[in-house]
Write a structure and sequence with these properties.
Blueprint: E1 2-6, H1 9-19, E2 23-27, E3 33-34, E4 42-43, E5 49-50, E6 53-54, H2 56-69, E7 74-77, H3 83-99, E8 106-109, H4 117-124, H5 132-159, H6 170-186, E9 191-200, E10 206-214, E11 217-218, H7 227-237, E12 242-254, H8 262-273, H9 277-289, E13 291-293, E14 296-298, H10 313-326, H11 362-365, H12 371-387, E15 392-404, E16 410-422, E17 452-464, H13 473-483, H14 491-500, E18 504-507, E19 510-513, H15 515-527, H16 534-548, H17 554-573, H18 577-587, H19 589-592, E20 613-618, E21 621-626, E22 635-636, E23 654-658, E24 665-671, E25 674-679, E26 689-692, H20 704-711, E27 715-719, E28 726-732, E29 735-740, E30 743-746, H21 752-755, H22 758-771, E31 781-787, E32 794-800, E33 803-808, E34 811-814, H23 826-839, H24 846-855, H25 859-862, H26 868-871
Parallel strand pairs: 1-2, 1-7, 7-8
Antiparallel strand pairs: 3-6, 4-5, 9-10, 9-17, 10-11, 10-16, 12-15, 12-17, 13-14, 15-16, 18-19, 20-21, 21-22, 23-24, 24-25, 25-26, 27-28, 28-29, 29-30, 31-32, 32-33, 33-34
Helix pairs in contact: 3-5, 5-16, 5-17, 6-14, 6-15, 8-13, 9-12, 15-18, 23-24
Length: 884
């Protein structure tokens, strides 16, 4: 009997069918252990020893594997054929070895690129050992990510209050997004003009051409700078005769694109299908693991995390047969095509993403696939087939139409056209192209050199240069790949991490850095520049690849990195906050203090007019304030654009209209905590009515009707039939909600704030009361330990400036050194909170006192809680998402 371990239960079921009764196939469900999210999991002082932890769910699965091994003589590790898959196999083997479950057993590693019977049987017939260098590269990567995250993040917290964690790879990706935003903000549009001509041949055929040369010199893009210059050119050509000065036609070939690798699949699925990178990989995973076709689970595509572009010889032969069948002999090239990846550090041994059976046309599986699955399979199939088809043959024609102006200069207009003589691979697949490469350009009408042409119009057109576009998911992945940063399995996690930390958001498929992310990037560029440089990160990736090839020893890479990194940390440790702020003011100036365009100082305080505006670092993040504080209390968010990339908002707001009841102006404004709405102005010191703009609403799109609805909140839904007290609806920090007698219930749809009826509100509140206190962990909290025994709310764990602490209501209590944020229990936390309340003179409720006395640890244990002064020395901890 042989035990086979794969990653997912879906694969386990399919593979078990292929292998038969002499095999037991079990799933590890991905990684079975990880580095605990606490200080000391990687020990540089002990030659980078690493402490691994198995979670409870994985422990049960490993126990099942160990139990199955008792009646078998062989363990086959068949996890995914990439770096992560190799690491999972190593982890499973190491844990089972410690359990003593591998004594007398043969341990082998197999890898297959597709879940088909032939691929799996072939892999089982060619086992190997776990790849030691590949595992070493994984260990180096995990150690580096851990050390950067757990060492750099506490520095961020101390120097940038309100910031989150930092990481080795995602910080570089964030820099790309932030730097692009700085480019956009610093960009100044330049006016330029083009001259377009509309011409007609002697046979009456019309065509268009653009002014390209003047007196034989090429016209640069910005050469015609204003309307006067453009009109002068049009005037000098008015009534002048034009003729065909030159005509050139030449053949051209367009070659097919390589089959997909991970990054190109994500890019094309985004452009053609509108899928996010994460969604693309989810659908591809399903196609790889298999779908039911005729009662049998069949894997439709090969493994989807790869940077290779070549295909197996049998797949190439099958693709050529499919081309012959569906398109005919002219479309089959005489020699099969071979491709080499242009991506840095590509693992050429990995096969491209392709159909497992190229003869399986998409129409054959349309009825068995969900629409998204079919669309992605169709895309992969067409790209694969096209990659082995004949080149497209074109004929490109260039015509120059010239005239001598009244000023004596020769003005030459150029027209381009192309004709597809043989469509080749374009018959199966086309990709988005730049305008100057568009194979669908119009055919030019017949003409000959020396022919006279009529003129229907010489039209100047005004243009302005445009800033570089923000990155999309697809274009950022393309850039990361070009730079050699990240790997196929990491692109999705990089984007997810940046979003989860609130460092960026996605609007209209574009990545926009949040102020929080831009401040972190500016800080790292100022004080850890080397570690967010693109070349440095790419070079480190190359070293990791050398480790996987067995060329260098992984601990030496760690030693070299750690030596320089700790030296950089030492330089930053003694930085004063004023130094940090001055540096951030300079780096983020185009964003924080944009040029007003009137020559005035953008940093002059608009309130007191004598102070200078400067970034301020607050508990809840960064904002702009006056240097004359406290005499001047002017504040605003970092961005003056309303937080939505829209129009700039003046200090007295943008008037949306008048309230029909009061006649007062309704304005949209920006405050320290973001955009808001205001009705009227302050009178006799009384604040006017204000309303926050919900997070799901773009401030720039708010109109008067919507503003009035928001200003009317909170809305009374009705009177509760039992208590005879009102139920109200409103927006809060966590979204839309209803509240009644201190009980809050969230609403799924923001519009429900204005539409929910009494009956539904009563039902939601009743459900909430039955569930009891929320188990949800608030933003910023590490975890929710549960309800406090006195019934007044939850006890949560947070990370603070001086270490981890527990919180209940307004009471915070430091976690003692013999406990961690991960191990502390509810009873221990309640005891610490009670002790803290007694020490600070807060009087706990009698009900709470009884329950604490009953449930908490003995008094001696409670006394071990350290004093506040001692707690200040405790190093901060961070939970940093794994990066590759």
């Amino acid at each position: 009997m042989t035990v086979v371990v794969v990653e997912s239960p879906a694969k386990a079921k399919t593979i078990n069918k292929y292998l038969g009764k002499d095999f037991t196939v079990l799933a590890s469900f991905g990684h079975v252990r990880d580095l605990p999210a606490k200080d000391g999991s990687v020990k540089p002082d002990e030659d980078f020893a690493m402490d691994w932890e198995v979670d409870s769910k994985s422990a049960k699965r490993l126990a099942d594997i160990a139990a199955a091994l008792k009646g078998s003589d062989r363990l086959v590790l068949a996890t995914d054929p990439d770096r992560e898959g190799e690491a999972i196999s190593w982890h499973v083997m190491e844990v089972l070895k410690k359990k003593g479950a591998l004594k007398g057993k043969t341990v082998q590693r197999v890898a297959f690129n597709a879940i088909t019977k032939s691929a799996i049987l072939d892999a089982m017939a060619h086992p190997r050992d776990v790849d030691g260098p590949l595992v070493d590269a994984y260990l180096a990567r995990r150690a580096l990510d851990y050390l950067v995250g757990f060492t750099l993040s506490p520095v961020l917290w101390r120097k940038l209050p309100g910031s989150r964690s930092a990481g080795r790879v995602q910080s570089v990706a964030l820099r790309l997004i932030s730097d692009r935003e700085l480019e956009i903000e610093a960009f100044k549009a330049q006016e330029y003009w083009t001259i377009d001509g509309k011409f007609v041949t002697a046979q009456g055929a019309e065509f268009e051409a653009g002014l390209a040369h003047v007196d034989g010199k090429r016209l640069e893009k910005l050469a015609i700078a204003d309307a006067a210059s453009a009109e002068a050119i049009a005037a000098t050509l008015k009534g002048q005769p034009f003729k065909v000065d030159s005509l050139e036609s030449k053949p051209a070939k367009r070659n097919p694109f390589p089959p997909f690798r991970t990054s190109t699949l994500q890019q094309e699925a985004s452009r053609k299908l509108g899928y996010s990178s994460a969604r693309t990989m989810q659908i591809a995973q399903r196609l790889y693991e298999g779908v039911d076709i005729g009662g049998e689970t069949v894997g439709l595509i090969t493994y989807m995390r790869t940077d290779g572009v070549d295909m197996a010889s049998e797949a190439i032969a099958a693709s050529r047969n499919a081309i012959l069948k569906h398109f005919g002999e002219p479309y089959v090239p005489p020699v099969p095509r071979k491709y080499t990846s242009k991506a840095k550090n590509a693992q050429e041994a990995h096969e491209a993403i392709r159909p497992t059976d190229p003869s399986r046309h998409p129409d054959q599986v349309r009825g068995t696939l969900e629409p998204e699955q079919f669309a992605l399979y169709d895309l992969i199939w067409k790209r694969t087939i096209a990659s082995q088809m004949e080149s497209a043959e074109m004929e490109r024609t260039t015509a120059d139409i010239a005239a001598t102006g009244r000023d004596g200069k020769v003005y030459s207009f150029r027209a381009n056209g192309s004709v597809v003589k043989f469509d080749g691979f374009l018959r199966a697949y086309t990709e988005d192209l730049d305008d100057d490469e568009d194979e669908d350009a119009r055919r030019l009408p017949p003409m000959a050199r020396g022919d006279s042409t009529g003129v229907r119009g010489i039209d100047p057109a005004q243009h302005f240069t445009e800033p570089p576009p923000r990155y999309s998911e697809a274009s950022l992945i393309k850039k990361l790949e070009e730079l050699g940063i990240g790997r196929p399995s990491t692109y999705v996690s990089i984007l997810k991490t940046l979003g989860d930390r609130g460092y960026m958001r996605i609007e209209k498929k574009r990545l926009i850095p949040e102020d929080k992310g831009r401040v972190v990037t500016a800080f790292l560029e100022s004080f850890f520049k080397r570690y967010v440089e693109y070349d440095f990160t790419a070079d480190l990736e190359e070293q990791l690849d050398k480790i996987s090839n067995g060329d260098i020893e992984y601990k030496q890479v760690l030693r070299d990195f750690w030596k320089d990194f700790t030296a950089a940390l030492g330089e930053v440790k003694d930085l004063r906050i004023t130094q940090v702020i001055d540096s951030l003011n300079d780096l983020l100036a185009p964003h924080i203090f944009p040029d007003k365009g009137d020559g005035t100082d953008p940093r002059k305080c608009p309130n007191c007019e004598t102070g200078q505006l400067s970034m301020k670092l607050g508990r809840f993040g960064s904002f702009v304030g006056c240097t004359n504080y406290p005499d001047c209390n002017y504040t605003r968010p970092l961005s003056i654009g309303g937080g939505d990339g829209g129009d700039a908002v003046p200090a007295d707001g943008i008037v949306l209209g008048q309230d029909p009841e009061t006649g007062q102006n309704v304005t949209r404004r920006v405050g320290r905590f973001g955009p808001y709405l205001q009705l009227g102005e302050a009178v006799d010191g009384e604040k006017p009515t204000r309303a926050s703009i919900p997070k799901n609403v773009s401030p720039a799109t708010i109109e008067l009707d919507q503003a009035l609805k928001l200003l009317s909140l909170p809305r009374e839904v009705g009177i509760h039939p039992e208590t005879k007290t009102p139920i109200t609806a409103n927006f809060g920090r966590f979204g839309p909600y209803i509240v009644h007698d201190g009980v809050y219930a969230n609403l799924k749809d923001p519009e429900e704030v204005f539409t929910i009826g009494l009956n539904r509100a009563v039902d939601l509140l009743a459900e909430k009361r039955l569930k009891g206190p929320s188990k949800r962990t608030r933003p910023g909290a590490l975890k929710n330990l549960g309800a406090h025994p006195d019934g007044t709310g939850n006890v949560e764990v947070f990370n603070g400036q001086y270490g981890a602490y527990v919180k209940h209501g307004k009471t915070n209590a430091t976690i003692p050194k013999d406990k961690t944020a991960e191990t502390i229990t509810l009873d221990e936390a309640v005891s610490l909170i009670a002790e803290r309340e007694m020490a600070t003179g807060k009087k706990p409720a009698k009900k709470a006192a009884k329950k604490v006395a009953k449930k908490t640890a003995p008094k001696k244990a409670a006394k071990k809680a350290p004093a506040k002064k001692a707690a200040a020395k405790k190093p901060a901890k961070a939970k940093v998402a794994e990066e590759a």
